[in-house]
Design brief:
Length: 301
């Protein structure tokens, strides 16, 4: 059994993850290749170039590292690959859809237990595509991620960078006019944010889409339309509790393919990583990745 361990090179391993990796390394008949990331897209490139059929990937990092790994996995076109996630990031939002990590994950890795889950795909009008595991979106959240990305590039990271980006985003964001077209719904208007959800939680614990399930072949689309930022702040408490917002400018849709129309480039994000949107298409790919982590009952179909 060959296991590729991808570790976010910028983070210190937690005590739990150190123990799990030690137990994995001590297992019989397991060949482990470990790679610590050094730069953006390093995990994507490494997985794409080194992954083999029937490999198992153990991703030790946050949502951004997981996003890079699944993009490398899809681009590699390898078969029968299994993915385990050991959360070691800032938000760790995707794994909130799964059971808490314990030593039991070792048994699941060695026995190949798990199930197939959906992933999302964002296709640009230029023919390029990127994939997401949890949630993609644009608007206020994308603006915050854009600012935070620039701050990191300038050496300002950590929790203070996130708080600073939120404040700067609140005061600099301007709502674009956006069109969303699907077989199941249409939306046109000023937009505070749109979230295309495979998982249910993003933004460090915001349950933006309580109805999302990881394997139901559809995405939940949450639209916060012509709201003010102060409305958004007012409803944060309800969102954190996983409660839907009852407001004439808040819409909840379901579908498996949505086309985005806008006259301007939109600041967006995929699993917390910056991505510009412009006349893009967002779709769901059914049961595309085999996830070893045990999924919570409420997050599976």
């Amino acid at each position: 059994m060959h296991v590729i361990v991808i570790i976010n090179g910028k983070k210190k391993l937690s005590t739990l993850n150190k123990r799990i990796l030690h137990l994995l390394e001590s297992s019989v008949d397991v060949l482990i290749t470990t790679h610590r990331t050094r730069a953006p897209f390093d995990a994507t490139n490494y997985i794409q170039e080194n992954l083999k059929d029937d490999d198992t990937i153990v991703c030790v990092g946050g949502d951004g590292t997981c996003n890079e790994v699944i993009n490398g996995l899809i681009l590699s076109k390898k078969q029968n690959v299994r993915l385990a996630i050991l959360p070691d990031g800032t938000g760790n939002d995707f794994v909130r859809n799964t059971m808490p990590i314990s030593d039991e994950i070792i048994d699941r890795i060695l026995k190949g237990h798990g199930e197939l889950i959906d992933i999302g795909k964002v296709s640009s009008k230029h023919g390029t595509s990127r994939y997401f595991l949890n949630i993609a979106g644009f608007g206020l959240d994308g603006k915050v991620v854009e600012i935070m990305t620039r701050q990191r590039e300038n050496g300002f990271g950590g929790g203070m960078s996130y708080s600073s980006a939120i404040i700067r985003g609140f005061f600099s964001f301007r709502k674009p006019t956006v069109g969303l077209i699907s077989e199941d719904f249409e939306y046109q208007g000023k937009t505070l944010l749109v979230a295309f959800c495979n998982g249910n939680t993003y933004g460090n614990g915001l349950i933006i889409s309580p109805d999302s399930k990881l394997n139901d072949n559809k995405m939940e689309v949450c639209v916060f339309g012509n709201l003010t930022i102060w409305h958004y702040i007012k409803y944060l408490g309800r969102i954190k509790k996983g409660l839907k917002i009852d407001h004439p400018e808040v819409f909840y849709y379901s579908g498996n393919k949505v086309t985005i129309r806008s006259d301007e480039e939109l600041a967006g994000q995929l699993d917390g990583e910056f991505q510009a949107f412009h006349d893009a298409q967002v779709s769901i790919l059914n049961k595309k990745i085999f996830l070893i982590n045990a999924i919570k009952v409420g997050s599976r179909d």
